[in-house]
Amino acid sequence: MEKPGMPEDCRDCGRAEGCRAGEWLEREGLARERVDAQGRRWTKAYCGGGGHFENWLAQCREIGEVEVEEIDASMLACYRESGEKLLCIWIKIPG
Predict the structure, then answer these.
(1) In this structure, is residue 49 part of a structural domain?
(2) Single pTM value for the model
(3) Which domain covers residue 67, as residue numbers?
(4) What is the Cα–Cα distance from 80 to 64, expressed in whole angstroms?
């Protein structure tokens, strides 16, 4: 069985039933920086998947040290239906 493709913009995917994309996007937009257990500061560069993610990851690696975090995307119908992973790229802030 073929999985449905991912939409260009999750907010416009047309799969509103059971999808809380707007809620997730609003919450995720608030988390722009974090500090890890070693006291290092990180900034979020990108959240998404597929080819866009791979392009962002390659570019971020050119900038500096990166960390990839897999996000629970169960509330997003488009990710749930496609089986695609939702990933965030964090870049270490020097200092």
Answers:
(1) yes
(2) 0.73
(3) 33-95
(4) 31
Q: Which has the closest alpha carbon to 16: 73, 57, 76, 69?
A: 76
Q: Which residues pair with 68 in a beta bridge?
A: 89
Give the residue from 27, 48, 40, 85 showing the smallest Cα distance to 66: 40
Q: Are 6 and 49 in contact (CB under 8 A)?
A: yes
**Tally of domains in the chain:** 1
Residue 95 located in a structural domain:
yes
Is 90 a domain residue? yes
Whether 94 is in a domain gets the answer yes
Query: What helix, strand, coil percent values describe the chain, rounded to 5?
Result: 35, 25, 40
Distance CA 26, CA 6 (A): 20
Which residue type occupies 42? Answer: W
pLDDT tens-digit map of 18-41: 566 667 667 766 778 999 999 999
